[in-house]
Design goal:
Layout (H helix, E strand, L loop, with lengths): L1 H23 L8 H4 L3 H14 L24 H11 L5 H4 L5 H10 L18 H10 L2 E6 L2 E6 H16 L17 H21 L5 H9 L2 H12 L30 E3 L6 H9 L2 E2 L8 E4 L4 H4 L4 E6 L2 E6 L2
Antiparallel strand pairs: 1-2, 3-5, 4-5, 6-7
Helix pairs in contact: 8-12
């Protein structure tokens, strides 16, 4: 009888122990089937949309504490060597990005090429030639949407986070960093760059026709050319002192980017209203934003680098006007 009682006690004791253990177990939350079945890029895109819906503003975005360390460190290879190393991370090479036998693309590389050293996704073409090319690049890049100075802007997520971090630092120091000309201060389409080009090109055609420096027939011929050839011929004409910029006294490229070449297309450019404030420029530089396009004072490019690395990367500092610019040392 005692044996039966003891066995019964042991049995109920074991049942109690198992029940207690089950009560303490906390299952790991399951990832939704929808998210599990998506490739990594699609998951990132879904999360980006959620961040935007929640209001990805300078007040609530997750700030970057330090500049990105994913890109290769500067090498002794100069500008070209460092660009090649950086592009390689994205399955690109310099010959696929820029056709240096083309005089326009060669000039764009010399003047705008610093952007190829960014720690974010560099442009896959130094000169995009269509809206479809631009849309394909922008869709592949990680687009971030946030509010700055009451304006919704879009940039690559890494660039946006760094910019908003800079805005918070500026605010703490008693300054502001706000978009110049609204949403156009950041992301742009191919069509927008074409519109900006025409705003200078067409006026200059009329101006020089009125001055007798261009015949109407020549102006009409220029207007009818495919855009790549049009840019090339405009730059050739400017060698004769017939300039196409806003004031007709300098190259059109000092006033506007050639269609498809703007760093705004790559979502790595931001035009700041406070560009004239040295303190603001310093804060932007501390967050990887530098001026890289000479004569375009409000324009900042996201490189994601420390300023001390820019020289070793193959860039040189050029003092001009009210500030400094970092351009390829070729």
């Amino acid at each position: 009888m005692n044996l039966i009682v003891n066995r019964t006690a042991v049995f109920f004791g074991l049942m109690f122990l198992i029940g207690s253990m089950a009560g303490c177990y906390k299952p790991v939350a399951n990832t939704s089937a929808e998210e599990r079945d998506q490739p990594e890029a699609a998951i990132t895109e879904t999360r980006a949309e959620s961040d935007s819906e929640m209001g990805n503003t300078s007040e609530n975005v997750n700030k970057t504490e330090t500049l990105s360390m994913d890109a290769p460190a500067p090498s002794a290879g100069g500008f070209r060597g460092n660009v090649e190393a950086n592009l390689k991370r994205f399955g690109l090479d310099l010959t696929s990005v820029a056709d240096e036998s083309n005089p326009v693309q060669s000039r764009i590389l010399r003047e705008y090429g610093a952007v190829l050293l960014t720690t974010a996704a560099p442009p896959s073409k130094i000169m995009f030639t269509s809206e479809s090319q631009v849309e394909a690049f922008q869709a592949k890049a990680e687009i971030g949407s946030g509010t700055l100075g009451g304006v919704t802007i879009e940039l690559q997520r890494e660039a946006l986070s760094a910019l908003q971090n800079a805005a918070e630092q500026a605010k703490a120091a008693g300054f502001t960093i706000t978009p110049r000309d609204g949403q156009e201060a950041a992301r742009r389409s191919y069509a927008k760059t074409l519109d900006l080009w025409n705003s200078r090109f067409l006026k200059a055609c009329d101006h020089w026709t009125g001055k007798g420096r261009l015949s109407k027939a020549e102006a009409d011929r220029l207007k009818s050319l495919p855009i790549g050839q049009q840019v090339e011929e405009v730059l050739e004409i400017e060698k004769k002192g017939i300039y196409f910029n806003t004031f007709f006294n300098n190259s059109i490229l000092s006033s506007v980017a050639a269609p498809g070449t703007s760093q705004h297309i790559s979502m790595l450019a931001f035009d700041a209203s406070e560009y004239g404030n040295p303190a603001v420029r310093k804060i932007l530089a501390e967050n990887g934003w530098f001026r890289t396009v000479q004569n375009d004072e409000p324009h900042f490019t996201y490189l994601g680098r420390k300023e001390s690395d820019l020289g070793p990367l193959g860039l040189k500092k050029v003092a001009k006007g009210s500030g400094e610019y970092w351009v390829p040392d070729l």
